[in-house]
Write a structure and sequence with these properties.
375 residues; mainly alpha; 65% helix; 2 domains
Length: 375
């Protein structure tokens, strides 16, 4: 057993030296995850505000001007000027405005008479996310205004003298910071890219260089060799997770509410899947180029079906079942649930079971392929 431990330690040291020998590889493993986190954290901001909006006030009353001022006050919409309806459409066409709010004639008269006052919003649908938020902003404002006035102007009639107090409450992310959503998903994808790609190219590199033949004639057991080739990438993966969390907390204020033991166990289970997939790809490849392409073809569907870029509920019904076979989906849920909500074993055991189950299966299949390759 002592001999096996010495052999295992020698392989781990050799793999670490080989992985970190190249300055470009050192940068990719140790520096690029932080660089990518900074780029995504600062650049990938889904917060929609300061949307250029042209006002078409056909009523020209003090009531309409009052509501226009209140509508533009919160900063979501920026005043792009006033115009008539044809000019407003031209401004949207040439990109000077992304939306137009049209207040028809008789707006104040309808409000004073207790009738429904209509307001039209014209949106630039080339950006559906922005259009949806702008439309929701205008709709919410006039719904609240209608309830305050006691008439059904875009809202629910509550009686002439009724009033409603509206106070939203946002849990876990009161400031609605995009970075709280982006950073955990980016960290999970970085871990997938680093470990799966390195594991895939490790064995393929030895095949290509011919050093695998020297391993075949050595008295090292197969399980020691496989463990020695995967453990270095586990250490690198854990280092990347820790640096990503530290950078996220320090630079973006991402909270760290989760249980450390649960997060560690879930990360190890996730690494079993990513390293197992990389090892399987390496057994199917005879060169580093083939391993790189195989890892790329594995990672792209995994990232697209993880729910990080596109909400899972928005995917087609026929495609959604495939997401249940994606370990990245569950690990992103674990990171966001653990870091932001403080969820642990009691709340997220289904995600952990899925990660552990897939990790065991993928790693077992890969080890069988690995033994067959060495045979």
């Amino acid at each position: 057993m002592r001999m096996h431990a010495i052999q295992l330690w020698s392989i781990i040291i050799k793999e670490l030296r080989q992985a970190l020998r190249d300055p470009r590889m050192r940068g990719q493993l140790l520096i690029m995850p932080i660089v990518q986190l900074l780029i995504f954290g600062y650049a990938a901001d889904f917060t929609v505000d300061h949307v250029p909006t042209v006002i078409v006030d056909q009523d020209q009353s003090s009531v309409s001007r009052h509501h226009v001022q209140r509508l533009l006050a919160d900063g979501t919409l920026d005043d792009a000027g006033t115009a008539d309806e044809p000019t407003a459409n031209e401004m949207i066409d040439d990109g000077r405005a992304n939306a137009a709010v049209i207040i028809p004639p008789g707006f104040a008269r309808d409000i004073d008479g207790g009738r429904t006052a209509m307001v039209q919003v014209v949106l630039d649908g080339s950006n559906p996310t922005r259009s949806g938020i702008v439309g929701g902003t205008v709709g919410r404002y006039f719904a609240m205004a209608g309830m305050e006035l006691g008439n059904p102007m875009g809202g629910q009639a509550v009686g002439k003298k009724g009033s409603v107090s509206f106070q939203p409450r946002v849990l876990y992310n009161p400031q609605m910071k995009t970075q709280f959503y982006i950073v955990p998903g980016t960290a999970a994808m970085q871990l997938l890219m680093a470990t799966a790609m390195l594991a895939a190219m490790g064995l393929a590199r030895e095949k290509e260089l011919g050093t695998l033949e020297q391993v075949l004639v050595s008295p090292i057991p197969t399980w020691v060799l496989m463990l020695g080739k995967t453990l270095p990438f586990v250490l690198i993966g854990m280092f990347n997770v820790l640096t990503s969390m530290a950078a996220g907390a320090w630079l973006f204020g991402v909270p760290l509410h989760g249980e450390p033991t649960f997060l560690l166990a879930a990360t190890l289970a996730y690494l079993m899947s990513t390293l197992g997939a990389g090892l399987f790809i390496s057994t199917m490849s005879n060169s580093q180029q083939q391993a790189f392409m195989g890892a790329f073809l594995f990672m792209m569907p995994a990232m697209l079906l993880s729910g990080n870029m596109t909400p899972l509920a928005a995917m087609p019904d026929w495609l959604r079942p495939f997401t249940y076979l994606n370990p990245l989906r569950y690990y992103i849920q674990v990171l966001r649930g653990s870091l932001l909500r403080g969820a642990g074993w009691a709340e997220m055991w289904p995600q952990f079971v899925a990660l552990a189950g897939m990790g065991v299966i993928i790693l077992w299949v890969s080890s069988m392929r690995f033994r067959k390759t060495l045979a």
